[in-house]
# Entry
Amino acid sequence: MPTGPFLASTILPVFLAGKSDTSSCSLDMSTKHMVGALVATGVVAYALDTLVSDKKIFGGTTPTTVRDKEWWEETDKKFQAWPRTPGPPVVMNPISRQNFIVKTKVDE
# Structure
């Protein structure tokens, strides 16, 4: 809820005059302004992301492990070659950083 001089200059005169229509009040922001602002924000974010990450305006280079397609394929082959065997469900306690195995039934 707006307060201060904004409230006194825009909302109070409308209510004191007995008008139920607040169209004379400058509180309403039209949809075209909101959509325009959202689109403009996306354009600015995309432009800045491109400048920083792709054009490297702050310097730096892309590591060869990211650029080299052959390295990526070999790494992917290595990961796919690992045996994948499921283990018991584990719950991690973030405070003590200890993992506990979850048992669904009591062993007798």
